[in-house]
Amino acid sequence: MVPPLTLTVQAAYAPAFDGSLAFTHLTAQCSFGARPPGSDNLSLCRNYIAGCLTSYGWHVTFQNFTYIDVGCTNVICRWGPSENASLVLGAHYDTRPRADQDSKPENRMKPIIGANDGASGVAVLIEFANALPEAVRQSVELVFFDAEDSGGINGWQWIVGSTYYVEQLSAERKNTIRAMILLDMVGGAGLRLLRETTSIKSLQDTVWSIAQELGYGETFLNENGAPIIDDHKPFLDSGIPSLDIIEHDPFPWYWHTLEDTPDKCNATSLDVVGEVVETFVVQYAGKPTTFSPDTTLLPYAAAAIVLLIISVAAFSRVRRR
Ligand code: 1BN
Ligand code: ZN
Questions:
Q1: Pairing state of beta strands 220-224 and 242-246?
Q2: What percent of the chain has pLDDT over 90?
Q3: Measured on CA atoms in the order 49, 136, 187, 62, is the torsion positive or negative?
Q4: Is residue 13 one of the residues assigned to a domain?
Q5: How many C-beta atoms lie closer than 10 Å to residue 105's C-beta?
Q6: Is residue 25, in this structure, part of any structural domain at all?
Q7: Coil, strand, or helix at residue 290?
Q8: How far is the CA of 148 from the centre of ligand 2 (A)?
Q9: C-alpha of residue 101 to centroid of ligand 1, in Å
Q10: CATH number for the domain including 315?
Q11: Which residues line ligand 1 (CB under 6 A)?
Q12: 55, 54, 71: which is closest to 63 by C-alpha?
């Protein structure tokens, strides 16, 4: 007798992330005003982030450093005191000291509120810390970077806080981090996320396919955008597979202007990104998955090396004659 066919249907994971709660974290940060490095407003914002995370049970540490005489602080959050999370999720919490892209010249020396550029990524991470099932929290380290967005002003570089964070990682710790995901400018109304092209493709493909499965293909577009220098770069440079989730190519029209205010953002965009990242973490936490660097260029690199060897050999033979 043919045994009856049994189908086991695994229930899809239902993310707990709440975009409306995330939006309250976005407006709360903006209520402190512009938040450039070293400012009192940024200290208030830092204490707000630390207060939220502590209330959800996370261990919070401040990583202090000085850059061009300004005191800066990365905020590092772990589930338990040990440093063994395999995923790092990051966002910058500082805002640009000058609205240098503003259409009005008289605004260009003023600091921005950074509702999207700064507060949106932080808002998602705060609600993520609340929504993530406790069983997988020890797999994740949440890092709020200082000093990302002052590049080109008063001699400052971009991505100063994330660069310092990676410099401080021991070789052993670097080996335990399997992936890093950065959230930057993820709160704009009508969010359109292109694929940032320095990110590791296998990690990006995994996140993008989760977005498709959740029905968010109109936000996570299957289209390549430009390469961006952002807080994932120091991780990439040190060999950690990393992904930047950022609205770019084009940046929203109000990028680095005084118009980057909460009315340009909404709970829906935060919710879509939060649900996708939560689902990714639940699926991949505890699994031995590794995200290898891209191999698509390897055949070209190999061909170039062979050509080089042949030309050197031919050249030295001609010289010997
Ligand atoms: C992202 C948000 N960035 C700045 N604000 C990174 C960046 C650096 C984008 C340089 C364009 C140029
Ligand atoms: Zn910026």
A1: unpaired
A2: 84
A3: positive
A4: no
A5: 7
A6: yes
A7: coil
A8: 8
A9: 12
A10: 3.40.630.10
A11: 117, 149, 151, 158, 184-185, 228-230
A12: 71
Q: What is the pLDDT of residue 2?
A: 47
233-277 confidence digits (pLDDT tens): 999 999 999 999 999 999 999 999 999 999 999 999 999 999 999
> Which residue CA neighbors atom 7 of ligand 1 most closely?
229
Give this prediction's pTM.
Answer: 0.90
Site to substitute for ligand 1 among 92, 148, 229, most atoms within 8 A of C-beta: 229
Q: What is the pLDDT of residues 5-56, one digit of tens each?
A: 555 556 789 999 999 999 999 999 999 999 999 999 999 999 999 999 999 9
CA of 256 to the centre of ligand 1 (A): 9
Q: How many CB atoms lie within 10 A of CB 225?
A: 19
CA distance 127 to 121: 10
Q: Is 15 helix (H, G, I), strand (E, B) or coil?
A: coil
DSSP H or E run through 220: strand 220-224
- What's the structural domain count of the chain? 1
AA identity, residue 187: G
CA 261 – ligand 2 centroid, Å: 13
Range of the domain at 270: 19-320
